[in-house]
């Protein structure tokens, strides 16, 4: 049987057809147009046209994929390392032909994902085997099996044309993105769409046309990875901006300042930027790095000067979403539940799993500060659909912000309920009850104070053993995902004759004022992967859905064959 592995070969007439329903081998087509791009290019003083390619990449998380399935009393109990558990539960229940209440999803501690563990086929295989065999089933991959089975980041070939005025102002952009879907589609359709349009909310290109094609080939299916195509797109854009600055004799920092989308502006695709401190971030990071002075250093001219290590310096901006609602359109923000037991225990339930980044610690700290206890007193529970609130999940830098705000609301609700309970027990107005460092005090001086533990014990006695339950909901009031922006200036060192640069001395800056050097940064040799590393975040709370024309020509949902559904 003939096979095809090159996406451009797959697009040519007469190439082997992977799926009969898609004779052109295009699984997903994304097109978008804003403004008069042709007029922009006609008016340009400079047009830069270049092609950039990014590689297929294995996510290389610490923990290979492993699942446990148990069929109990007509319910599939699935232990799955998914960081979008509610969406995954919906997918699995549909694939199994069951109502949602017949699938219980439990999330164990996750040893990293980087986008690979959204939804997986493995839980469905384990579920069917468990139902047929009548015993729990575990499927655990070794590292070599995980690497062979996993769905990598899709490789892209991106052609960008940028029209510029002589003063460095962008007039328009035209982009064509071709990516590999592999034999099926998973989360890669969203990555090709992102690669087409996301840079236009960082820079004001004024007009743009874009096309993205995800192409079937006889290879393993691809999926999302860190940034959903944003890093890959900016990998080329940022290098082109440097080339434009050099051709127009404009400082590369100034070139970027002249074209970024500012606070209070609406981007080309309708994203309203309500808050952005990106200009201040640019100023601070260039100051921290001595960017201007170090760029004045003369390049090596003699053989002796060129021997050994060659040093270079560059600047790159970037942006990404936060709180990505389209993953689960019915849920925008987050919710939290606090269970305060008569024994003094405090348990917190949120819907966002910790994938190794440590937001469980953040939740414990937030709840502890509000309740006047130590973080060690807060037991942040693992995700279990039988108890945890539903949520979008952990992705797009949303967990600490969304679940954190919900946690604060839940803790505030607990305080209000405890104050009301103390007032009832003391027979005083609620206004006479004060709360300080986890202690309830009767300001009239008639009653002895309650510590938090004493109050919870008393609450349980009065309510026949019931715990105090508190809830919190955070509504960010967004229509589309929030935008975040980051900037990083790496010093690049390479040995002469070595094509692989080594990034040293990274200087990143966050809008909150602290330097951010993430320990989880992707350190591969693919230059685009460096875009995933770094801080300098400024937040936008409002955005509007970009009117766009998208055609998803394949379903990512994996339906189980009827013969297995009936097993």
| Residues in helix, % | 25-40%
* Number of distinct beta strands: 22
- What value does the Rg take, in angstroms? 27 Å
Strand order of the largest sheet: 2-7-8-9-1-22
Low-confidence parts: 481-567
Largest sheet: 6 strands, mixed
Task: Find the CATH topology of the domain at 8-59 and 152-240 and 546-552.
Answer: Aldehyde Oxidoreductase, domain 4
Q: Could you give the distance between the termini?
A: 32 Å
CATH superfamily of the domain at 8-59 and 152-240 and 546-552: Aldehyde oxidase/xanthine dehydrogenase, molybdopterin binding domain
CATH architecture of the domain at 8-59 and 152-240 and 546-552: 2-Layer Sandwich
> What general outline do the C-alpha atoms trace?
globular
Number of helices: 15
Mean pLDDT: 82
Q: Specify the structural class.
A: alpha+beta
The CATH class of the domain at 8-59 and 152-240 and 546-552: Alpha Beta
What fraction of the residues are assigned to beta strands by DSSP? 15-25%
Task: Considering the chains and any ligands shown, give keywords for the structure.
15 helices, Aldehyde Oxidoreductase, domain 4, single chain, alpha+beta, six-stranded mixed sheet, globular, 567 residues
Architecture overview:
The protein has 567 residues and is an alpha+beta fold. Among the domains are: 8-59 and 152-240 and 546-552, Aldehyde oxidase/xanthine dehydrogenase, molybdopterin binding domain (Aldehyde Oxidoreductase, domain 4, 2-Layer Sandwich); 66-150, Aldehyde Oxidoreductase, domain 4 (2-Layer Sandwich); 330-474, Aldehyde oxidase/xanthine dehydrogenase, molybdopterin binding domain (Aldehyde Oxidoreductase, domain 4), CATH 3.30.365.10. It has helices at residues 7-11, 37-42, 85-95, 122-133, 143-149, 188-197, 230-247, 252-257, 278-289, 291-295, 303-306, 359-371, 399-426, 452-462, 562-565; strands spanning 26-34, 46-53, 66-72, 75-79, 103-107, 137-140, 156-164, 170-182, 208-216, 309-313, 316-322, 334-340, 346-350, 378-380, 383-384, 433-436, 439-442, 450-451, 468-474, 482-495, 502-508, 549-552. α6 (188-197) packs parallel to α7 and α12 (359-371) runs parallel beside α13. The longest helix has 28 residues, at 399-426. The two termini are 32 Å apart.
